[in-house]
Amino acid sequence: AQSVTQLGSHVSVSEGALVLLRCNYSSSVPPYLFWYVQYPNQGLQLLLKYTSAATLVKGINGFEAEFKKSETSFHLTKPSAHMSDAAEYFCAVSSNTGNQFYFGTGTSLTVIP
Amino acid sequence: EPEVTQTPSHQVTQMGQEVILRCVPISNHLYFYWYRQILGQKVEFLVSFYNNEISEKSEIFDDQFSVERPDGSNFTLKIRSTKLEDSAMYFCASSGGTSGRRSDTQYFGPGTRLTVL
User: Fold this and answer.
1) B88 interface with A at CB cutoff 8 Å
2) Disulfide engineering: B106 pairs with which of A31, A66, B16, B93, CB 3.0-4.6 Å?
3) Do the chains contact at B110 and A43, CB–CB below 8 Å?
């Protein structure tokens, strides 16, 4: 079975500071991992995904994530936070069949001016 | 850019009533999904649908729930007799099925907020 754990339900950073949102996965097969962002009153938007092609994945809006098998992690980072990055971020892993995603509990990012 | 659309954006209903939530997936996609998110909780899978039949469903998706693709564009979720605990945001998603099932990106709609009174 697959699952993801997001440590830290709330993260606050200053504008211009590094953003680090943590995601650890558990998977009985090689994982396919996704990060989604949810802005207030909106749906889930794909930021990036890992599909085994490269361990460092670049996404939209300056975000990137690194797949580390030894640490079973797929943390999301951005070098310099913008006010517009304030949102809820979800990590997800695809199931064995690909018929569903398992989502983490989400991390709410606050950017302090 | 193509996107998944959902109607209505907000539905208020009385307990015991039937509701139908509507979705228009991205036009060339083959796989369709419903998820829900109870306020403050994680996004949970309900059902996946392919080739006019359910391919997988969760324990949440009991006999009160059904899905249908009534025509070539719409994908609906019906709740026959709503309960208070059905209050949640319901997301529709679709995927193309062209890059391998497990690596396929699911594209989500903006959601329908269902409030059961």
Assistant:
1) no
2) B93
3) yes
Amino acid at A40: P
Rounded distance between C-alpha atoms, residue B56 and residue A86, angstroms: 34
Q: Is the pLDDT of residue B78 over 80?
A: yes
Instruction: Name the residue among A22, A36, A54 with its Cα closest to residue A102.
Output: A36
Sheet containing B75-79: give its strands across: B5-7, B19-24, B75-79, B65-68
**Do B105 and A46 make contact, defined as CB atoms within 8 angstroms?**
yes
Is the CB of B5 inside 8 Å of chain A's CB atoms?
Answer: no
Nearest-angstrom CA–CA distance, A43 and B82: 23
Nearest alpha carbon to residue A23 among A35, A14, A32, A11? A35
CA A106: distance to chain centroid?
9
Using DSSP's 3-state secondary structure scheme, residue A60 falls into helix
A93-110 pLDDT, tens per residue? 998 888 899 999 999 999
User: Residues near A84 by Cβ (< 8 Å), separated by ≥ 6?
Assistant: none
User: What pLDDT shows up at residue B102?
Assistant: 77
* Cβ–Cβ below 8 Å for B56 and A99: yes
Give, in order, the Cα–Cα distances in Å from B31 to each of A68, A93, B25, B88.
30, 17, 9, 23
Q: Tell me what the mean pLDDT of segment B40-58 comes to.
A: 92
Tokens of B45: 């899978």
Best B34, B60, B106 member to test A by mutation, with max A CBs in 10 Å, is B106
Q: Cβ(B80)–Cβ(A21) under 8 Å?
A: no
